[in-house]
Model the fold of this input.
Amino acid sequence: MKKLALLAVATTALLSSNLFANDTLKILTWKGYAPQALVDKFEKETGINVELTYSNNEEMIAKLRATRGAGFDLAQPSQDRISSVQAKYKIYMPIDYSKITTANVVPSMLTAVKNNTKVKGESYAIPFCYGTSGLIVNKKLAPGAKDYSDLLNPKYKGKISYRLKRPTLIAVAFGKGVDPFKKYSDIAAYSSLMNTVEKDLIAAKPLVHNYWANGDALLSMLRSGEVTVAMGWDGGGWKLHKENPDIDFVAPKSGALGWIDTFAIPSKAKNIDGAYKWINFMLKPENAAYFTNDQGYGTASNGAIKLLDSEKRDNFERTFSNEDIENINWYPPVPAKLEKIEGRTLDLIKSAQ
Done:
């Protein structure tokens, strides 16, 4: 009789624990990715209490590594920071895509994230939001600048600016008509490609106004006309366009470079059902549009663009046709040895006379 009573107590405690877990959703995310108005709306619709912990890629990995995937029901790492971590530490669980309303996700982004987070045949994330870099052009003064190759074009001598960072190496390779991401698995081929990019950028040094290191400084140079063709972020170009319609962000012909932040479910999440509910909730066009209007980042939600505020909708529609979105080159995971090659290439370009 005593054993039965103890069993009843234990069962009650276990049920209470599970009920509590399913009433709460613990999300490890970036600041701004879960606006309070959407949290309130979700809690009212589902009865699930949302607990937010703000973080970044490095901290997310560290926290989940320390607990072996416990402590949170959902995380939001960048797509290129998942597969290598998962292969080594197994901190996420495979995504059950049958539980995702995939009609609400831009197909090219879903495909990219599935491919870039795949480990042993299973994928570990769903796209949430994105941003791009490409060209910022004064179309009145440099009307023909449409691709990364124009960063090396003598026609714009003295009016060109870009950062000496790895995105520029990647961009110049795309401008040459070569997909550098397809060479990531072949170290020798990637090294050979970087040698040609290095020679191109050294030869083009006399054309460059400067290598910018501060985004605000770049915008100032574009405002003043010191620079007419630059490599920069979409938000910076759109900010200048509001001030001067001659200046705008341009998605290059060979494709803008894009990052995607995702939803990933930790391997020891307790409220898995709640995690899928939050993902589908945030990807509903009306909720995704609220997020973009609030934070400015593009959303992976299919159909949200029609619900954006007029200024933001104009920016996205003016810059990205459906073909431009399909043409974005999403950053894949970077094998460790490539960073050394890129670092050496950048050092040689900097030191060249």
Observations:
- Residues 2-23 form the longest helix (22 residues).
- The mean pLDDT is 93.
- The chain is about 45% helix and 15% strand.
